């Protein structure tokens, strides 16, 4: 009898920001969605500036260089709005 294990990889694979939602796709296939209103700097930014992002913290965070905004995957998984 084999042992089944699930491998979680909570590093960022993709980010989509609409006028109302932030969607983050993780490498293990999970998707985190949160209201854009939780992140005032992103909500106030132009769609062009929101579209330019890069992984940070070895893939466990997201950085928007044009906005100097950073979010952690851990905070998103906990449902934590920006302070």
Structure description:
The chain has one domain (12-77): Uncharacterised protein PF10387, DUF2442 (NE0471 N-terminal domain-like, 2-Layer Sandwich), CATH 3.30.2020.40. 17% of the residues lie in helices and 34% in strands. It has three helices and six strands, in the order E-E-E-H-H-E-E-E-H. It starts with 11 loop residues before the first strand and ends in a 6-residue tail after the last helix.
Write the layout of secondary structure elements.
Layout: E1 12-17, E2 21-26, E3 31-35, H1 40-44, H2 47-50, E4 54-56, E5 61-64, E6 69-72, H3 73-77
Antiparallel strand pairs: 1-2, 2-3, 4-5, 5-6
Task: Summarize the entry for a quick read.
The protein is of the alpha+beta class and 83 residues long.
Strand order of the largest sheet: 1-2-3
Q: What is the β-strand count? A: 6
Q: Class by helix and strand content?
A: alpha+beta
Radius of gyration: 14 Å
What's the CATH architecture name?
2-Layer Sandwich
**What is the terminal-to-terminal distance?**
49 Å
CATH superfamily: Uncharacterised protein PF10387, DUF2442
Percent range of helical residues: 10-25%
- How many helical elements? 3
The biggest beta sheet is recorded as:
3 strands, antiparallel
Overall geometric form: elongated
Descriptive keywords:
about 80 residues; alpha+beta; NE0471 N-terminal domain-like; three-stranded antiparallel sheet; elongated
């Amino acid at each position: 009898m084999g042992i089944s294990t699930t491998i979680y990889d909570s590093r960022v694979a993709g980010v989509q920001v609409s006028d109302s939602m932030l969607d983050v796709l993780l490498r293990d296939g999970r998707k985190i969605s949160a209201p854009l209103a939780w992140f005032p700097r992103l909500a106030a930014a132009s769609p062009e500036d929101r579209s330019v992002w890069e992984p940070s913290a070895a893939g466990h965070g997201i950085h928007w260089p044009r906005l100097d905004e950073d979010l952690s995957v851990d905070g998103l998984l906990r449902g934590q709005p920006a302070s």
